[in-house]
Amino acid sequence: MSGNTFGKLFSVTTFGESHGAALGCIIDGCPPGLALSEEDMQRDLDRRKPGTSRHTTQRREADEVRILSGVFEGKTTGTPIGLLIENTDQRSKDYSKIASQFRPAHADYSYHHKYGVRDYRGGGRSSARETAMRVAAGAVARKFLEQRLGIRIRGYLSQLGPIKAEVLDWDQVHQNPFFCPDASKVPEMESYMDALRKEGDSIGARINVVAEGVPPGLGEPIFDRLDADLAHALMSINAVKGVEVGAGFACIEQKGTEHRDEMTPEGFLSNHAGGVLGGISSGQPIVASIALKPTSSLRLPGRGIDVDGNPVEVVTTGRHDPCVGIRATPIAEAMMAIVLMDHYLRHRGQNGDVVVSTPVLGQL
Amino acid sequence: MSGNTFGKLFSVTTFGESHGAALGCIIDGCPPGLALSEEDMQRDLDRRKPGTSRHTTQRREADEVRILSGVFEGKTTGTPIGLLIENTDQRSKDYSKIASQFRPAHADYSYHHKYGVRDYRGGGRSSARETAMRVAAGAVARKFLEQRLGIRIRGYLSQLGPIKAEVLDWDQVHQNPFFCPDASKVPEMESYMDALRKEGDSIGARINVVAEGVPPGLGEPIFDRLDADLAHALMSINAVKGVEVGAGFACIEQKGTEHRDEMTPEGFLSNHAGGVLGGISSGQPIVASIALKPTSSLRLPGRGIDVDGNPVEVVTTGRHDPCVGIRATPIAEAMMAIVLMDHYLRHRGQNGDVVVSTPVLGQL
Amino acid sequence: MSGNTFGKLFSVTTFGESHGAALGCIIDGCPPGLALSEEDMQRDLDRRKPGTSRHTTQRREADEVRILSGVFEGKTTGTPIGLLIENTDQRSKDYSKIASQFRPAHADYSYHHKYGVRDYRGGGRSSARETAMRVAAGAVARKFLEQRLGIRIRGYLSQLGPIKAEVLDWDQVHQNPFFCPDASKVPEMESYMDALRKEGDSIGARINVVAEGVPPGLGEPIFDRLDADLAHALMSINAVKGVEVGAGFACIEQKGTEHRDEMTPEGFLSNHAGGVLGGISSGQPIVASIALKPTSSLRLPGRGIDVDGNPVEVVTTGRHDPCVGIRATPIAEAMMAIVLMDHYLRHRGQNGDVVVSTPVLGQL
Amino acid sequence: MSGNTFGKLFSVTTFGESHGAALGCIIDGCPPGLALSEEDMQRDLDRRKPGTSRHTTQRREADEVRILSGVFEGKTTGTPIGLLIENTDQRSKDYSKIASQFRPAHADYSYHHKYGVRDYRGGGRSSARETAMRVAAGAVARKFLEQRLGIRIRGYLSQLGPIKAEVLDWDQVHQNPFFCPDASKVPEMESYMDALRKEGDSIGARINVVAEGVPPGLGEPIFDRLDADLAHALMSINAVKGVEVGAGFACIEQKGTEHRDEMTPEGFLSNHAGGVLGGISSGQPIVASIALKPTSSLRLPGRGIDVDGNPVEVVTTGRHDPCVGIRATPIAEAMMAIVLMDHYLRHRGQNGDVVVSTPVLGQL
């Protein structure tokens, strides 16, 4: 049981249902002395927030986070940080259908079999709304990593359905509603999304996340490898069906002479490893990529069954994201930040000290 | 620190270096009453064992496992199961080079930065030899799952470099040295591997694993989702760079109407989800796929540096697998078994009972 | 780091400072299907609440708990239960002294050395106010244990300073402000406390807790013994300096023939073990006893130092409990409930089932 | 389930039955760079070893420990340390009686109800023989703490049945078979034990453990308080029924003015707290005390039942310790060392660094 906590020393535990009273989280293990305010989290929350363009759900969620503990006179104290977001946009509506139907590709069916009961309103606990707290917690990790270690974590949408971003221009990422780093592809994405919305269908996406400035030596090999924990964290995001580190699935067709990242005194000559060797950071950028499935809440009818096993036709009329991947960039960044933070706190080097190596090699 | 344990209730902790005295593991949490002997593990260990064909390393490792505790009169007692494999093939050789060099794409560099010291003989703790204990522990989980719940876990090599298996014939998997389910592709694989060995290069591979008979309801949503734990487990296997569940990365280009697995009273109509909905098993087969990178231990020279930062030319002369993916099938099966076992033990349904649902729907 | 979570499968994580915005907690792992409302917790919270007699602090804390998640249509859903108590009685006062002084026997000094910063208002995180959330979480565990397993957990004050309760009459426990089961000792306690309050001093106490109806078989031997987890849980309560199970320290002078609880077909003949054999419940009542130190917040001046190491005279003028033990009974009950709940959920018997044995023997 | 692991970052997992093939343990999380050999552990193992005087069991156990991994060229590498003790003194004897009988005050009865099966030979997993691995693991922690932090951990027997040590002369502790620090009481203890052995009875004991040189700031407040973890660790030792920190149960009758440890610029004026304030070390010595029950394996017959519920007369003929407390001193020291080591590794101070404070105050 349980399962709502991530992280061993930087532990994030969340609660809350989509249409319940509130979402909340406890961050346990944040070191003392970090300047922290609601604004630090709000910035990232606003990036995840729905309704910021016509391409995402038009639900209104203020997503205003309150710090309830763990911060005193503007600084963290080392005690647990309690966070709360009250739910405001709980439209009262008729849930009788959703209560007795299993919608295809939703968690209704599996939750029903696990728990017997479920809060079906808006997907309850299985709603992606839960990720708001991950973003808030990630913002704390991110601030620490940036200020203390100079680590910068950034993500972008690298593919929307069939459309791939081919240029990585970080400056473009926040200039469009897709987090797309390739300005030339934005118009194509816009029309693709407009057509999709008209159709009533949805589409998958790919998000890449990169952490720069990570010192070598983070990660505990064997089971708690940095990349294994990262895979855990990223696969735990709603709708994610695949995770890659570095070359990822492309390595299947790579030869060893191509894949191995050669080293010279000036630095690594490539980064197929994605910044992780033997489960431990190498000092190169940590690079991960995830695949997000298309949402299954569609206006187009689909076959489902009801709780008695009878066939039903399911049509979703609510306000849903036609591409859940679009809003996932801040979530993926948050999860990478949480993983790195946890591994930084777990790391103990020679004689039990926390010396973090300066890399011998330049970063590629 | 730590990080050598996997599983919350079915916990597997391993120790041992490639060229050290022994490998060992403690399985903590195996329920009492399971008939268990060394043979149950040996079968799987032998499938992973090197030197069984010309396509894998010619190192000889007996990999004979001994049960030291936790089994009494042929049955598990519920107390921890201690397992030991003594290392026998420790060729004494000159390690002076490897001790001071960082080989490209090896864990030498990252271990050095983390620990300051390392057992460099044969890769020490970062050697894939460590996975022998995972296979042994997985065999215990697998036996329990099969006998108690009727779950069957099987894997196969679905791609070797550029060559894809196109037919899934389970009967073929153990008829060739590659775990390839498509007999028609075996000759091609053989000649590919022969050429590769001659060249001195290596290649990546893809392994698929499938668990059939998994009841709906296993998995703890949010962070300890069944698929997130599976991603963790599979990404923790040496050389793995990518993990997919169900449709995986293909879902990026899928529309919602295509991806969503519709349900009828007779069963699901597809399994793009890979048997997991909202982090919880749906009763469909759990399907995962992993990418393994080509080994970096090559006869062909590569650029590396030494501990002082000077450039060195690295040539590996030892006995290495030109495709580490070939022997990875039993390891992937083992990790899936451990994950399912752990989630079975963690599962508590309504009123805290362990009732595992009988699926309403037939399996696809 | 971290450390604000108790329990492996029934996990309680708390946050909140004495004079912060709120106290909160997340209960992760409560099985679905339990009828639950705020009233279930409020009853126990009210028993812990200060200001109910002249013998406890006269601070007013409403301690009104709100359920924010995990309960739907009056029943738990298996998802995390978020609880919140807003702080209402935050008197604004001058904290300049306490901010720079280390009061004797307070956590000021150790928190300062650990964290560098601290929320000094009212003791911040180290205040016993934190235990309110334990009581709320314990009430959930207690309700489950009672309804599902028929386990009853009750505590009482067995000694207040030099005055020992000699009769255990459960009906008396809630008839007096001390949770004293021996009515004949209540007048003595009242005058003792009145004198103490006049003096400005404080006194220690002993609390006993008993769980009846616990089935045999709960507890995981070696490190996670039922009694070891109980010792952990009870010693984690503010002011506790000692924990006993069964005969406790009296066993030092017992001979084996006296201590060993003989068994007959009709039942055990004694319960010196306190219901735990080899770390596992025996079916007899679980009996524990704790010692609580006198509070150190006294009107009588004591020697302390300030943050610069200079000597200071410390006088506490606030509203404090002259005997913190008086209000500790519900807290000790709560922690025992949480431990038993966690072990019930962790327990898996033969073949991995959760069969809980019916004791062969009657209970003593 | 599980439960055979102690420690979050310095994790000790043990396996092994009294009369099985071997005892073993994995220490996961020992920092790299510590000089370590079998001798470091053997010294403490020999102090626990039976048969060293006529006052302990005459069983012969060589208890020779082998390091199987984690140490390279005489130093720890940061990878898990595998330890093994092969069992040598496994007398083949007739176990038919013990197999079907529940002996009073043994774990037979509770193990039977938990697991359904059990290895009854010599107590199986519930035998105190398991503590050998704790002593071995503790020796590693102790060496690190001593070399890296200057922490010294020492224990002694402070009471044997009715006989109390009244003088604490550390030099005496290893001059007698009882670990008694008061030379004047040794003759009395010897004749008491001789009489007891003749009688066929057993007796309880009290052990004190003290850690000196512990820096302030170790311990994670609320649930993972240093004293709570210590209580957990000490109560998990076989036969322990009570744990005290500092004044312990004596604090019940102490007034606040007496109990509070006043501070002056020269140091604390007393140590009733036992070195822990608010769950965090204060820089004073950590002082704990435990009560060990008399062994229940007696030549004098006792009433038990058999597995069918029939009354039986139980007589133990084996070689048993008449006072298990005598050999418990090294075990208690080991557990305290493991707790302190774990908390040292978990500790992260301001900005996430591991600065351990130099105490402002002298130690008492």
UniProtKB/TrEMBL annotation, chains A, B, C, D:
A Gene Ontology molecular function term of the record: chorismate synthase activity
Family, per entry: Belongs to the chorismate synthase family.
Cofactor binding mode and count: Reduced FMN (FMNH(2)).
Known cofactor(s): FMNH2
Residues that hold NADP(+) according to the record: 48, 54
Keywords: Amino-acid biosynthesis, Aromatic amino acid biosynthesis, FAD, Flavoprotein, FMN, Lyase, NADP
HAMAP family: Chorismate_synth
Subunit structure and binding partners: Homotetramer.
Matches recorded under Pfam families: Chorismate_synt
Keyword set includes Endoplasmic reticulum: no
Statement: the UniProt record of this protein carries the keyword Ligase: no
Free-text function comment from the UniProt entry: This reaction introduces a second double bond into the aromatic ring system.
Species this protein is from: Marinobacter daepoensis
Alphabetical list of Gene3D superfamilies matching this protein: Chorismate synthase AroC
EC number(s) per entry: 4.2.3.5
Catalytic activity: 5-O-(1-carboxyvinyl)-3-phosphoshikimate = chorismate + phosphate
Protein name: Chorismate synthase
Binding site for FMN: 125-127, 238-239, 278, 293-297, 319
Pathway: Metabolic intermediate biosynthesis; chorismate biosynthesis; chorismate from D-erythrose 4-phosphate and phosphoenolpyruvate: step 7/7
